[in-house]
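Dear support,

I submitted the protein below through the web form. The confirmation email said the job was done, but the results page showed an empty box. After a refresh the structure appeared. I'm attaching both so you can tell me whether what I see now is the final result or a partial one.
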Amino acid sequence: MKKCHITAILLTALVLFTNTSRAQSVDFLEPENNAVVPPSFKVKFKVEGMTVAPAGTMTEGTGHHHLLINAADINEGQPIPMDDNHLHFGKGQTEVEIFLPPGKYTLTMQFADGAHRSLGENSARRSIFKSSTRVISRLSWQHGNPSDAVSY
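What the results page shows now:
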């Protein structure tokens, strides 16, 4: 009987340790930092230590992605605005094809809870990655080396 209790306690401790020791972070799989991309390009999101869930899901450890385009970070607990610079992926999407006119952009990954509230910069539940993305014209992309292209 004692062995059963000890085994149960050890298994519980292992599960708790495993769940709390996983790093919680978000990142970009695509594009790479400082990438030169055509005006239409794919953005892929990565999350570790949390679960992607649709907006409205208020379960601890879940949330969904937001892509901020040339926008300031959102403080913990603040709602993420809904406009052209704050793209919401409330269905739980982990990738998207976006179009940006030629120029330089800062893309910020923002993970938020089911009510679209930022999980915050200093919280263990959220981190951001900024990617400076130079978008070039299709003409330069098709007829020349992207590294030789001029940014607009």
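Response: this is the final, complete result; the empty box was a page-load delay. Residues 12-21, 122-129, 137-152 have pLDDT under 50 and may be disordered.
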